[in-house]
Amino acid sequence: MGPLAQQVVHLVGTAPDKRGTMAYNEPTRLWNYADAMMTLDSTGNRQGSLPTVVRYLFEYVKCALYVTVVEVGANTAVTEANVIGGVDSATGAIRGLETVKACPETPTIIAAPGFHSKAVGQKLALIGRDETARNIAYKINDKTTQANFLNKHGVVTIAHTRMGGFIGNLLIPDVLSLMLA
Predict the structure, then answer these.
(1) Which uninterrupted H or E stretch holds 34?
(2) Domain span at residue 8?
């Protein structure tokens, strides 16, 4: 995969205090720390799953970064369904993790920080299988690389390898068995 700073990262999550002009379910490129914080956290209180992760990515890594903000639901299940997203059958609009397909650059890391259920893992695995089939050079649990930075901040990475397998830092056996089924 190479150094994290050379990756194109796409994050999907919540930012209830986002700037009013930022649309929901639209991948948006963030250029730097100041732009990111003004866009995702207009009040400065770090609400939602995106502002803190984006802050760390810009402070320590400075990679190409896209975010898709989804609405916070009435409960956790609704919010998670917004993150998983899909394609609206009536309008054809894409929502949630499906917005990775609308990024102008092809993301090499796709994540939904703060959301770690089986359903989110399955959706990430499907996107990894369909969108990111590439040769992967990634040492699992290597504490000396920037990949550990992702693990430390709760970012799940899953990719499909050229040899037909899956690789990543998600350690939920049920999700992995569902991916291979």
Answers:
(1) helix 33-40
(2) 4-180
